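User: Please run a holo structure prediction.
Assistant: Happy to. Please share the sequence and the ligand.
User: Here you go; the ligand is flavin-adenine dinucleotide.
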Amino acid sequence: MEDFNKAFDYIIVGAGSAGCTLANRLTEDVSRTVLLLEAGGKDSNPWIHIPVGFVKTLDMPGLNWRFETEPEPNSKNRRIPIPRGRVLGGSSSINGMVYVRGQPLDYDTWSQLGNRGWSYESVLPYFSKSENYESSDEAWRGKNGELVTAEGREKAELLDVVLDAAEQCGYPKNADYNSGDQEGFGYFQVTQKNGRRWSTAKAFLEPALKRPNLSLEINAHTLGILTDGGRATGVKFEQNGKTRTVTAAKGVVLCAGAVQSPQILELSGIGNPNIIRQYGIEVVHPLPGVGENYQDHYMVRQTWEIKKKITLNEQTRGVSLIREALRYAFTRRGIMTYPAGILAGFVRTRPEIATPDVQYHIAHASFKDVKKRILDKHPGMTISPCQLRPESRGSIHIKSSNPVEQPAIKGNFLAEENDRRTLIEGMKIAKRIASAPALKDFVAKELNPNEEIQSDDELLDFARERGNTVYHPVGTCKMGSDPKAVVDDRLRIIGMQSLRVVDASIMPTLTSGNTNAPTIMIAEKAADMIKEDEASLR
Ligand SMILES: Cc1cc2nc3c(=O)[nH]c(=O)nc-3n(C[C@H](O)[C@H](O)[C@H](O)COP(=O)(O)OP(=O)(O)OC[C@H]3O[C@@H](n4cnc5c(N)ncnc54)[C@H](O)[C@@H]3O)c2cc1C
């Protein structure tokens, strides 16, 4: 074992959405030294930066941890892919780039659970602080932050018609679903700058690396946390085949994401003693909630055949593709700038529900084979519903003491009746929208599920057979004060000192939408709390 010949004030583990943001904020004061450790490498692969490259990086070895769940009991025992970024920027370097803050209800629920300072009113300034949004001067949007958010560069004829079809079904157009009122349909906003992905590595890390007080180590896989009498003193990591240790005078912050933050805790002896002992690891601090409370958005892709050649299925082939590649190279416009979902819809499946409970990702494209990412030959459209606030809970726990072995991810998706019911209703609404008058001249037929799959049982069976996640694992180191809480509302590991978790795993409940913006908000808020706690000790 070799010592890293320098001590730091803080060590941040993981340069993802949260880690890059936090590293930037903590090093604004040059007297504070920070070491950022990232298991992955540089973000130099061009497919990261060209938005359409999302399809390539979704399971690209080297850039992606390519996790998968254990066989899922409610999804026909399938192993469901759980991609995660393994590169500077973490999952923000491979994600679908859509920018969604969630609903005020999400954060007011966190506050209602007893987490002080996490109500919508309290977190809204942190969303705005990060943001640089040019398209509106509304009070809730930010103008001076590092995270460039924008309107998608391209619309599409078919999707404009879907907006009309949704309206005919009673779902209004919504010009800004990030206003605090999500309900309705509109184009997704994106984390892109001039038609290129704007990851947290680009937004927050690159500028901060110019500071002398930020050190970055890549290909540095954290193996565990060093502790002394209930206090975190540093970490042990592996780099280029060598195991090294490094110390932190003021604190260790885990930003390794919802799969690996609980894994690192368990490998360090922090977690449920029954699980930890099974693998011969000494229990340092019993904390039964570690790895519990896993939540994710379970989504079903529904596809239709389209009559007119106005979809990506044809535009991404042959001469058309060459034309689009040149267009992108010279103008940074065209189909290569599309995010993973192009049109967003947020609906209430029942009128008595206060706020939307289903989100749609909609694209004028359809996969023949999702796994191999082969598009249908004929024109197509996909509408993918997911329930926004699932009640099913899974877990993520180590299954060996080997830090490079992926933990056991158990989603337990669709375990709860309300999750099944909401998803079925979401699928039925998608079918209704596709058969609205506005789309009559466009839709040829339902593909998957086809016209014959109509009853609730058939739709549920289809969802079990084909469903996937939207790649939003959260909740495995949840914030709270109940017996299953892992961090308190200042994101400190309960019962320990100088150890925090700051990433998507601290969410007590999943936010109503995609999780990148909420994770960046969490890091923004954590930075202020860390600075406040430090000042109070002076
Ligand atoms: C394919 C995909 C598409 C998505 N699409 C969207 C979208 O369009 N919009 C949206 O809002 N959200 C999207 N998300 C979700 C969003 O990107 C994540 O919620 C968010 O990035 C999570 O941030 P994080 O900081 O918690 O974790 P991450 O960003 O995953 O960062 C964790 C980092 O820690 C590193 N790490 C892990 N273990 C170790 C270790 N032992 N040692 C050192 N480093 C380690 C990882 O390599 C990684 O860089 C998507 C996610 C994926 C994977």
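The chain has one domain: 2-537.
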